[in-house]
User: Fold Dolichyl-phosphate-mannose--protein mannosyltransferase from Saccharomyces cerevisiae.
Amino acid sequence: LLFFTVASFFSFVMFHNQRSKPFSRKWWKWLLITGISLGCTISVKMVGLFIITMVGIYTVIDLWTFLADKSMSWKTYINHWLARIFGLIIVPFCIFLLCFKIHFDLLSHSGTGDANMPSLFQARLVGSDVGQGPRDIALGSSVVSIKNQALGGSLLHSHIQTYPDGSNQQQVTCYGYKDANNEWFFNRERGLPSWSENETDIEYLTPGTSYRLVHKSTGRNLHTHPVAAPVSKTQWEVSGYGDNVVGDNKDNWVIEIMDQRGDEDPEKLHTLTTSFRIKNLEMGCYLAQTGNSLPEWGFRQQEVVCMKNPFKRDKRTWWNIETHENERLPPRPEDFQYPKTNFLKDFIHLNLAMMATNNALVPDPDKFDYLASSAWQWPTLNVGLRLCGWGDDNPKYFLLGTPASTWASSVAVLAFMATVVILLIRWQRQYVDLRNPSNWNVFLMGGFYPLLAWGLHYMPFVIMSRVTYVHHYLPALYFALIILAYCFDAGLQKWSRSKCGRIMRFVLYAGFMALVIGCFWYFSPISFGMEGPSSNFRYLNWFSTWDIADKQEA
Assistant:
C-alpha cells in the first residue's frame, strides 16, 4: 500500500512538472504511470481512494484553470479532458478490474470467505459443498439453506434468541457465514396434514403452492404479522413462531419463480439455478433482506422483513437454494455443469461484501479492545501496537513511529497549516508572498498537496465509527514527512545566500539526520525483534501508555 501510494504521488508530481509540455511523450508517460499507480493502490486496499481523491482535486483545479486560459482553443481543452479521463479514470479502473480477474482465476478453491459470494460462484470452487445435493427440492425431506440474491445478500437464519421488542418471538435474520441455524425445510401449509418421515411418495415443491417454511433446529415456522420490523419500521417483522400444532395462516408462504437458468423442469424448484420470491399468503408481503444490521441483541446480523409492495425486480426479495441435503433423492448427475457467473456482477458483489465487512468492524462498547486506538494518539505517539505474542520465548515486535521524525512531522503539519492561514490573510490584504513561479510550484507540490493528502488519509479515521489501529496512520505519516522536508527547506532557504549560512544550514540538516538515525538505532529492537523477557526493554517505555514492557513488570 505504501509503495503504490508513494509511486502515485511521485508520478503525479512528475506529471505536474510536464505541464508546460502538454501531450508530449514525457507528459503522456507520467500521466499513464500515475493512472497505473493509482489503479495498483486501490487494488491493494480501499485506502487508495484517498490518494485518488487528491489527484482528482488537482485535476479539477487544473481543468478549471485551463478554462480561463483564453489562449487555449476548445479543441485543446477537450483533449485535456479526454486525456485525463483516459489516464486517470479508465486506466486505474482497468487495473482494478484486472487485479480482481487475476484474483478470481487464481483462487479457484473453496475457503472460509465463500459465503460472501453468490451461490453460483461458490458452486464452481473446488472443494465447495454448495450445489452438491440433488437437483430438485422435495417437501419435508429436503434440508436446505436459502440465500438472498441482493448485493451483499446472506443466508436465511434463525436462533433461539427472541426480539426484545415487537412480538418478542424468535429472531429471524440473515447471516453471512455457514451455520447449522441456516437450515430449513418445507412443510405443508397450515390446515393440511404435516409431512411425516413415514411417507414414501416424493412430493416436489412447485410454484404457486402454499407451504410452511420450518427452521430445522428449533422447529419454529417462518412467520410474519402486522408488527413493525425492528429497524425498518415501515415493513413487517418476520419471526420464528409456533410448531406443527401451534400457529396460524400467517405461517403460509407461496413460492413465486422469477428465473430459471438452464433447461431443467421449469415447474420445479432447483438448487442454485432457480431464483424465486417467497410471498406470505395472508399478509401479501414478500420475504426480504433489507441490508440493515440489527443492534447488539441481534448479534449485528442482517435484518429480515416482510416487504410490502416491492418492485418485481427488487433483488432484496429474490432467493435461491444454496445447499440441499436429501438422502431420498438421486444425487446430482456427475456430468451436470452449473452456468458460469458474470465477472462484473461478481466484481461488484465482492467489493460490496468487503465494504460491508469493513463497516461492520465497529467498537463494542461492552468490551475493551486492547489493540485499538484513537486517531489523536497516532501523530502524538501516545500509543503503539503489539504485533505478536509477548511471551519470553517469542521474538517481539512493536509498531511505533520514530519519535524524532513523527513528532517533528506533526509539528511541521501544524506549522504549515498556520503558514497557509497567514498567507491567505496577507493575500486578502493585497500582499503577494510567492511571486516567483519556482517558489510557488515548490509550495504547491512540497507543501500544499502533501497537506491535502495528509488530511485525506488522516481525517476519515477521525470521524469514522469503525475500530481503528496505529497502522492506519502510516500513509498519512508519509505525507507529514514530506511537509517536514518542505518546512526545513523553506525555513532555511534564506541561509543559503552566504557561505556562513550554508554551513549553518548543513549543520542543522546533519544534526537532524543524526538525531533521526540515532533515535531509530535506539528503538531498533522493536523493529528487528526483542529477544527474551520484555522487562529487558523497559528502558524503551518512555511513557506509561507504551506497553513495550509488561505493565506488571514495570
